[in-house]
Design brief:
This protein is mainly β. It has three helices and 30 strands. Keywords: Cell membrane, Disulfide bond, Glycoprotein, Immunoglobulin domain, Membrane, Repeat, Signal.
Length: 414
């Protein structure tokens, strides 16, 4: 074979690309995707000038491939899925857009994905798939309801999983403050406390209640678990009024304030020990104020002499008992003294006053007029000060006339 022909054949066989038009190029960069586990992820690769480009000596058209870069696994070429994964699919819009779809994303799908065009040199672009997982409480590693004696310590634990790692915070269900103590001394009062473990030292009854551990990592939804902290102590009774008075034939109510945990049995007795039951005479009620506090009330209807005396409110639970004492006595209604002036029933009419030595006018010149005005106000025969002045003046005239007559009689006798 002539050497010139050999060189031509070698050159023909060595030809890899024949370009008809522009080389393929990416129109947009491949974008990173962050998706929650279980959702669908989509990568979109846009390649221009791919249709008129031919690869190799046989003039084969250029192709777009999808590759998992970190594992170097070929996922799909053009419109055909290569990997054995039913959750993957590829689509092409017959122009310049290729799409890789991953249904129901799992944590193992996380990684770098490559869109590659088999040009020479090869062109590609990559993007990262981040799979996030919403938080979830690990119940087998998390505390449940807890009981501690008053003055003891409690440790509440809350474990959560998810990606990114969830942050756990503690709050009281009633929005109360959480007491944070160090060496038995109150260090701070906080609306919430961070961390998987909540430690409560020297617990008091006021810390009894529901606590919420809330796990969040920025991936909705956040989750929480409710834990009930029971603080046990023996009953305590406070009596607001130990001495109660009421008139007979009226209704009267006695009150006792009870604190106890666990829940106590509460009842009333007479001082003789006779237990009181609800009937037409007695009504007993309990009003809850908190997890451990109730108000006991005993209403006695139509109070009579036999109801007077001592009463006891008693509270008992599994730890101990307590009682409070109340004494009920008769209270007489105030009696109204019968006034000298007034109506026939002994009560003053509106605007009426008992007479005093300083009411009314004391001037002789208007004594009669004052007497008339006072008579209109003070009814039923009441006299005013002006009337008394007029009577006194007339009495003086009568005395003067009697003295003159007596002196005339003595002069004639002499």
């Amino acid at each position: 074979m002539p050497s010139s022909l050999f060189h031509c054949l070698f050159a023909l066989l060595s030809l890899k690309f024949t370009a008809n038009g522009f080389e393929p190029d990416f129109l947009y960069p491949l974008e990173n995707v962050t998706i929650a586990q279980g959702r669908d992820a989509i990568f979109t690769c846009v390649v221009n000038n791919l249709g008129g480009y031919r690869v190799s000596a046989d003039l084969a058209p250029a192709r777009v491939a999808w590759i998992k870069a970190d594992t170097k696994a070929i996922l799909a070429i053009h419109e055909h899925v290569i990997t054995n994964n039913a959750r993957l699919s590829v689509t092409h819009n017959d122009f310049n857009t290729w799409t890789l779809n991953i249904r129901g994303v799992k944590r193992e799908d996380r990684g770098t994905y490559m869109c590659q065009v088999n040009t020479d040199p090869m062109k590609s672009q990559m993007a990262f798939l981040e799979v996030v997982i919403p938080p979830d409480i690990i119940y087998e590693e998390t505390s449940g309801d807890m009981m501690v004696p008053e003055g003891g310590s409690a440790k509440l634990v809350c474990k959560a999983r998810g990606y990114p790692k969830p942050k756990v915070v503690w709050r009281r269900e009633d929005s109360g403050e959480i007491m944070v103590r160090a060496n038995g001394v109150t260090k701070a009062r906080r609306a919430q406390v961070e961390g998987e473990m909540l430690t409560l030292n020297k617990v008091t009854r006021s810390e009894m209640g529901a606590y919420l551990c809330i796990a969040a990592n920025g991936v909705p939804p956040s989750v929480s678990k409710r834990m009930m902290l029971h603080v046990h102590f023996h009953p305590l009774i406070q009596v607001p009024n130990q001495l109660v008075g009421a008139p007979t034939n009226t209704d009267v109510t006695l009150h006792c304030h009870v604190e106890a945990s666990p829940k106590a049995i509460n009842y009333w007795t007479r001082e003789t020990g006779e237990m009181i039951i609800t009937n037409e005479k007695y009504e007993m009620t309990e009003t809850s104020n908190s997890y451990y506090s109730v108000q006991m009330s005993l209403t006695i209807r139509h109070l009579d002499k036999s109801d007077l005396g001592g009463y006891k409110c008693i509270s008992k639970n599994s730890i101990g008992d307590a009682e409070g004492n109340i004494r009920l006595y008769e209270m007489e209604l105030p009696k109204h003294a019968k006034p000298e002036l007034g109506d026939e029933d002994g009560f003053l009419e509106p605007g009426q006053h008992l007479p005093t030595g300083q009411q009314g006018s004391l001037r002789e010149s208007d004594g009669l007029e004052s007497g008339r005005e006072s008579s209109r106000v003070n009814t039923n025969g009441a006299q005013s000060s002006g009337q008394r002045c007029t009577v006194q003046t007339q009495h003086h005239y009568q005395l003067s006339a009697a003295l003159l007559l007596l002196l005339s009689s003595l002069h004639v006798a002499l």
